[in-house]
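Attaching the record inline, Q. Sequence:
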Amino acid sequence: MIKKKKFLCLPISAVCICSLLLSGCSSIGLAQESTFESAYENGAEEEPVDIFTSGATVVIESVDEESQAVNVYMVERNESKTLSYTGSTTIQDKYNAGMSVAQLKAGDIAKIMYNSELERIGSISLSADAWSHEGVAKYNLNAGNGSASIGDEIYNMSNDVKVYSDGQAIDVTQIISQDVLTFRGIGSNIMSITVDKGHGYLDLENDEAVIGGWIEVGQTVISQIAPDMLLTVPEGSYTVRFSGTGVEETRDIVIERNKETHLDLGDIEIPQPEKGLVTIKVTPETAKVFIDETEVETVYPIRLPVGFHKITAKASGYDTLSEYFQVEGEDITVTLNLEEETVSGNSIGSSLKENVSTITINAPVDVEVYQDNLYMGIAPVTYTKTAGSHTITLRKEGYITRSYSIEIPDDDNDVTYSFPDLDPEAAASSSGSTVSGNSVSGNSVSDNAVSTETNKGSVSGNSTVSGNSTGTS
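Structure, as predicted:
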């Protein structure tokens, strides 16, 4: 009997499973590909994952294209942050038109979407809610009460408002009335200020021939010339005119932002003296002074004809003093010290004399102090207080000259200011020459605050600022 061999019969499905097991990963990959293709054919696609899920309203502070980073100030969080960007980052203006990163400016208000863990920006869109006023020359800033006026409109201005000059952050107190500004904000709140047209400084050297005369810098600055002046002038090109006794001269200059222009007047011939320059020093400073019965201002030196003159000084609570002096063509100084009035041998000056309040500049020490272009002395220095808006300029050789706006109240209180230390001039800065042989020294800008004190208390980092100008941009 013949034995028949038995064959094992497997289902087709089992054979397929074995084949897949034997073929390994390549077969699995084919199966996955087949599944993807099937899904694609059925119209199914995987949605990309959006990793930029955090949003914020920001003020653009700076852009570093080399490192592909944007520095922003996050308004709601009151903090600055550096975020990276890539070639796929979307940048749009307020009308949703495309922009390049190079078109972003310090002070722009934008809405961003970013990834907080990766610190990367997905999109930047200039805010459609933001407004801007550009080239504003008529304004009034008052950081003390947190307000600002632009023309006839009043806005809120917080102490941490962002201010930029040449792309660098500065303090709002470093804006002076001659600057032309761009304001940006949302609603009634100012969120950033950009200096469109800033100021520089004009230093007159060897100016003996024009002391007591007048200087006109275009139509911008008109002032009588006093010794050791340092003039703040809006940046730009000007024809400078000097006029005085026997002197009519013009010079062409260029004023650059935050730089000193030195104008040498040593080539002006001093005319034969028909008049002499008289400097008057009187105590108390509030005294009224008369020369030949005509009241004169003692802030500036006075040119008087050669010969004898009578000077009289009067002040409440003091004895009137009169004397004669002679002008011979040379510069002279006349000093008058009034004595307090007495009644029956008792001094009554303390009760009758005017209460003289003062301004003291305490810091930084050993710097030249100028108020409204006039030299006041070396800090710490104290001088008579006059109410109103003033520009304080601090200067020291080898350091960056800097100006601040202050608002002095009309009261009897003494006031003391302490300003930040001056920054050394950058090693890379060097003096250059302009066309008239005038040198220009380079400066930069930094962010600092001002401390003020009165005899009623102190305010730190919250100095009152006020300024307005009628110039054009």
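Residues 275-352 form a domain with the Immunoglobulin-like fold (CATH 2.60.40). The chain has a mean pLDDT of 81.

More tomorrow.
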